[in-house]
Write a structure and sequence with these properties.
Number of strands: 11
Radius of gyration: 19 Å
Structural class: alpha+beta
Distance between the termini: 13 Å
Order of helices and strands: EEEEEEEEEHHEEHHHHHHH
């Protein structure tokens, strides 16, 4: 099903509803929830997903898992999507939180094929087998470290949001501690309690998330590295490779190639 409103098919008696939708650059889907869990896959472009827990950056060939009832907002940057809406009892991911998942070549092909599944597909036929295989592949999909959780403490959350808007790997925890009028030890403890990770790891996550739209929009590795405060392109590339398993250049090349291979459809509105 392509460009079909979820409301038209949400109540069908099937564990999965599959919908493909295309979005123009800059489309913002404001905060909303779904009764079903959702796997939102961006085949092209870049998605930025906000929840009450924080921000996810979702590059091409990746998707975001959203548990049932999770409030979220999505900014689409030239994205063609496949969405699977899954009944809560059939959800294949045990995590109560959102995750960015790697989409394998097999899962990619299954998601492409899912666009041809009618809402009331034959559960004992090919489409039923496809639905079951989609659930198995989602269960096995590895997650990517592309999340920057936001703390509940309002002052610390304000600093985090400002940093996400203008990230720099050179930002120091003692500077943040000073702005919050706390000792560095107290700040470090507070930051870990509020976000579940150290300041250094969170800072790197935020810089990695900021790097993706720059690289995919044509910024060079050198320019991106320097804008984010890295001492050299090599230091930035090393961080990128450790986090995502490939160099920035290889990542952009693969994303570009995948985008060129995908068919174009119409354009519409719902995630």
């Amino acid at each position: 099903m392509l460009n079909i409103p979820l409301a038209d098919v949400d109540r069908v008696a099937r564990p999965i509803v599959a919908i493909g939708t295309d979005y123009s650059p800059g489309t913002l889907l404001d905060f909303h929830t779904h009764r079903r869990a959702q796997f939102l896959y961006g085949m092209t472009g870049l998605m930025e997903v906000d929840t009450d827990d924080g921000t996810w950056m979702v590059p091409p060939y990746s998707g975001v898992w959203l548990p049932a009832g999770k409030r979220h907002r999505v900014r689409m940057n030239g994205v063609s999507t496949r969405s699977l809406y899954i009944e809560p009892h059939a959800a294949p991911r045990p995590s109560p939180g959102c995750e960015v998942l790697v989409v394998s070549p097999l899962l990619h092909q299954l998601l492409l094929a899912s666009a041809n599944m009618p809402a009331l597909y034959d559960e004992n036929g090919r489409d039923g087998a496809l639905a079951q295989l989609l659930l198995h592949e989602l269960q096995l999909a590895p997650s990517l470290p592309l999340f920057a959780p936001l703390p509940h403490d309002p002052e610390l959350a304000s600093l985090c949001r400002n940093f996400l808007g203008q990230p720099s790997i050179r930002s120091l925890p003692e500077e943040w501690a000073r702005q919050l009028h706390r000792s560095q030890r107290t700040f470090n403890r507070l930051f870990r309690q509020q976000t579940g990770m150290s300041f250094g790891v969170w800072r790197q996550q935020a810089c990695l998330m900021a790097a993706l739209p720059r690289l995919l929009s044509g910024s060079s590795v050198t320019r991106t590295a320097l804008e984010l405060g890295y001492d050299s392109p090599g230091a930035f590339s090393s961080m990128f490779r450790k986090a995502l398993g490939q160099s920035p250049t290889a990542f952009v090349r693969a994303a570009t190639r995948q985008g060129e291979e995908l068919p174009n459809h119409g354009s519409q509105t719902e995630a």
